[in-house]
Amino acid sequence: MDKKLLLNDSLHFLGLSPGFLESELKEAYHKLAKKYHPDSGEFTSDVMFLELNKHYESLKDYLLIHPEEDTSFREGVDGFDFSESPNITKPSKDPVFHEYKLAKEKETEAILRYYEKRNLHPIELSENLNKELVQLRKDLEPVISVYAEIVKNHTNSLWAKDAKDSLERLRVWWSK
């Protein structure tokens, strides 16, 4: 599906306007989740709940991958130019978003560097046999600190769950 069409459909489905904030996305999602959940909502089928989750993930991904200097969203949906709307706050001005995004970039770079140095050899989790692992762990320590801080101090943030999931995923590098 065309990205602009999906974005427009997602905004419409969740009842959001262009330039929505993270808090508005979360609030709209929870309101509709109560309505569409097959166990407790108005519908017994999970079709609407699955559709809600698809649109929610689409908009959540949009927040993650579109920094404020990006202009693709400003081109508008259905011909509406969002850049001329003075009262719209870009979602990427969220300080938690910036912390999360920088940590995610550092995590990705560190892991890619690790694999490049290891020449894609199997993972060896013994520090004695894998000097690259020692460096990777050092590179990931500040990332883990940022994720832990987001989980601890920003529990209501959209990024808290992703930060928690990332912490779980990164544990593999300390497994024995």
Features:
176 residues, mainly alpha
Helix segment count? 6
Helix content bin:
55-70%
- Topology as a string of helices (H) and strands (E): HHHHHH
Shape: elongated
Based on CA atoms alone, the radius of gyration comes out at 20 Å
End-to-end C-alpha gap: 43 Å
Spans of at least 5 consecutive residues whose pLDDT stays below 50 are 67-91
Q: Output mean pLDDT.
A: 76
Give the strand tally. Answer: 0
Broad structural category: mainly alpha
Percent range for β-strand residues: under 5%
Largest sheet: none
Describe the structure.
With 176 residues, the chain is mainly alpha-helical. The protein has six helices and no strands. Helix 1 crosses helix 3. The longest helix has 23 residues. The protein is elongated and about 60 Å long. About 14% of the residues have low confidence.
Give a quick rundown of the structure:
The protein is mostly helical. It contains six helices and no strands.
SSE order and pairing:
Blueprint: H1 3-14, H2 22-36, H3 47-65, H4 95-117, H5 131-153, H6 158-170
Helix pairs in contact: 1-3, 2-3, 4-5, 5-6
